[in-house]
Write a sequence for this structure.
């Protein structure tokens, strides 16, 4: 295949990418995006502070992350991919909605594959900060949000037993300025889905598929989420969106999570944090069975025989016992009214 004027430069990396048909649509998309106006810079610092600190990358992962910077700079194909991925994200800042755009690079690239994407989020960070500042969003909120990059290194090691970063597609939300860490929870600007809106209407409320809403997420590797911490997060969120997105109306907050599976009430005490979190939401519908999602979030690595999963906690024992009985986990889809704050200003 002859390379066009803005095609992927031909080298061994390009051969690996071109050799897998799964990467074809992605590479075509990057070709359509085109090159950056000026060369993309992988910053070592942001506003005078270490970029790796801003992203909260674990100390033990930093040597490999820094080495990856040199690998990318020395590889024309990886540089091409990085440059155009940054342009793609810059063009998508403030665009609400999910984007499944950045596939995992071929494992044959070794550490270059596992440590490539952190530099995409380092490179886009100045643009994300500029967009957030234009909305009056404090830098400390952006920093708290981008700390999720570091937590995705923990996820990768827990899942695969090796260094690297997971969740490169999830982190597009952070780069585009549509998700924010506010206290213990994350809040995402998104659109109401069809099944959830139908569930809200079935409960006697007006809801329109596609209308703006807030999706609530509970990040891993941040410890417990007691009710009082969640109360604080919701109060912060209501004030935050009223101040920084005053032209947008969110009538509902939604949550789609394994944590909302009502079957957990059979096994956990009524005062458990998970059950308290469930009680915040009204059920919209029961999702289809998906045991793997629950196994993934509870045990990190779901690819084991049932008898090989650890049984250290009440939750771990419940998840395995439930499956041993021939039953399945469904997760849950819940909603609640998302009211603008009145009275005391709790603006972050």
């Amino acid at each position: 295949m002859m390379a066009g004027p803005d095609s992927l430069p031909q080298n061994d990396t390009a051969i690996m990418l071109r050799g897998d048909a799964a990467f074809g649509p992605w590479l075509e998309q990057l070709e359509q995006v085109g090159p950056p106006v000026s060369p993309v810079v992988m910053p070592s610092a942001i506003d005078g502070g270490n970029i790796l600190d801003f992203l909260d990358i674990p100390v033990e992962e930093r040597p490999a992350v820094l080495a990856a910077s040199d690998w990318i700079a020395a590889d024309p194909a990886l540089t091409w991919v990085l440059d155009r991925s940054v342009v793609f994200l810059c063009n998508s800042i403030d665009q609400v909605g999910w984007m499944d755009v950045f596939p995992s690079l071929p494992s044959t690239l070794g550490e270059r594959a596992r440590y490539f994407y952190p530099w995409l989020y380092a490179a886009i960070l100045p643009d994300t900060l500029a967009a957030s500042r234009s909305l009056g969003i404090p830098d400390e909120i952006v920093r708290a949000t981008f700390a999720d990059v570091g937590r995705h290194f923990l996820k990768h090691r827990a899942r695969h037993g090796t260094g690297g970063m997971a969740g490169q597609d999830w982190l597009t939300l952070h780069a585009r300025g549509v998700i924010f860490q506010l206290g213990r929870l994350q809040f995402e600007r998104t659109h109401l889905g069809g099944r959830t809106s139908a569930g809200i209407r079935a409960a006697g409320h007006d809801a329109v598929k596609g209308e703006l809403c807030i999706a609530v997420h509970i990040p891993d590797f941040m410890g417990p989420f007691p009710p009082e911490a969640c109360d604080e997060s919701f109060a912060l969120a209501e004030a935050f969106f009223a101040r920084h997105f005053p032209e947008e109306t969110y009538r509902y907050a939604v949550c789609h999570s394994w944590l909302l599976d009502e079957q957990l009430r059979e096994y956990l005490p009524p005062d458990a944090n998970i059950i308290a979190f469930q009680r915040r939401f009204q059920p919209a519908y029961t999702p289809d069975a998906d045991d793997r999602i629950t196994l993934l979030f509870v045990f990190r690595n779901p690819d084991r025989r049932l008898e090989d999963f650890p049984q250290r906690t009440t939750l771990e024992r419940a998840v395995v016992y439930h499956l041993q009985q021939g039953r399945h986990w469904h997760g849950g889809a819940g909603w609640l009214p998302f009211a603008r704050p009145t009275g005391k200003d709790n603006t972050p």
